[in-house]
Known about the structure:
Elements: H1 2-22, E1 43-48, E2 56-59, E3 65-66, E4 75-76, H2 82-93, E5 102-108, E6 115-119, E7 125-127, E8 133-134, H3 135-141, E9 149-156, E10 184-188, H4 189-194, E11 202-203, E12 208-213, E13 216-221, E14 227-230, H5 238-244, E15 257-262, E16 273-278, H6 280-285, E17 298-301, H7 308-328
Amino acid sequence: xxxxxxxxxxxxxxxxxxxxxxxxxxxxxxxxxxxxxxxxxxxxxxxxxxxxxxxxxxxxxxxxxxxxxxxxxxxxxxxxxxxxxxxxxxxxxxxxxxxxxxxxxxxxxxxxxxxxxxxxxxxxxxxxxxxxxxxxxxxxxxxxxxxxxxxxxxxxxxxxxxxxxxxxxxxxxxxxxxxxxxxxxxxxxxxxxxxxxxxxxxxxxxxxxxxxxxxxxxxxxxxxxxxxxxxxxxxxxxxxxxxxxxxxxxxxxxxxxxxxxxxxxxxxxxxxxxxxxxxxxxxxxxxxxxxxxxxxxxxxxxxxxxxxxxxxxxxxxxxxxxxxxxxxxxxxxxxxx
Length: 337
C-alpha cells in the first residue's frame, strides 16, 4: 500500500513538472481544445500525398485570406482551424484529383504576440498563450508577487482580441476613455488572492500585466528601527507603522510626532509638504483618532527634552565619575575652608 502511494506521488510530481515546463499551452481543466484559430501573419504548409506539384506554402494576409496557387480565388482563413481549412481545400482539390490526401500544418504562429507580465513579480517574462488563460494563472506562472507589491494590478490591452465571440473579453472596455490611451483596467490584488471572479480576467495575446509597486513611507528619528515601509492595500496608520518597526524609543517625543506630507500635485522628491502633528500617546490610549499614512509621507519622531531633574542627575553622575577617575589615577582633592 505504501509503495503504491509513493508511486502515485512520484507520477503526480512528474506530471506537474511537465505542465510547468510546457507553460500556458494546454487546455484548462481537461476541456477539449477547439484548435488554433488562424490570424493575419500565420504561415502554413500544405502537401498532397503522391502529388508534389500541388504542394504549397501560404501566409494569411491582412484581409484574413490565403492564396493557393492552383485556385483562382483566395480562401478565407482567419479564425479558422487547420481541420476546417483542410476540409475546404480538399474539396477544391477534388476538382483536379481523385480522393486527394491533404496534409495541412501551421508552421508559423505570428498573429498572436506573447502576453507580458512584469513589475513586482518574482519572474517577469513574456508568455506565449496557446489557450485561454487567466490573470491568476499568469501570476502563478511568474512565481507570485514580491514583498514590495502594492494593492493594484493593471492590465493593458494593446490590441483588440482575435476570433473572440460576443463574450466579456471581446467587449472589454477601458477604464480611461481618453483618445490615444492604451485601454487598461485595474484589479485589486487582495481580491485576486481571495479568488474573486471579477478580479481574475481572461488574459489575451498582447496584453501587458503590470503588478504595481507599493508606495513607501519613511520613518526616522527616535524609533527602534528607522526605515521605509511599503503601504499595502487597505492602508497603514501611523500607530501601525511605528509598531511595525519596533515602536518608539524611551527618549522619543511621542506627544508631538510630525508627518511631512506632499502637497497635491507635488512629486515624491518635492520638499513642498504640509506638516501634520500627531500625539502618539493619545492615539495609543484611544483618545485621538489614528492618522492614515499616505504615499511618500515622512514621519519624524523627535527626541524629547530632558527635565530639570534629569539634567541635575546627569550633572551629579558626571561629577561622581570625575572623582572616581581622578582617584584611580593617583590624584587627590584639596578642600579649602
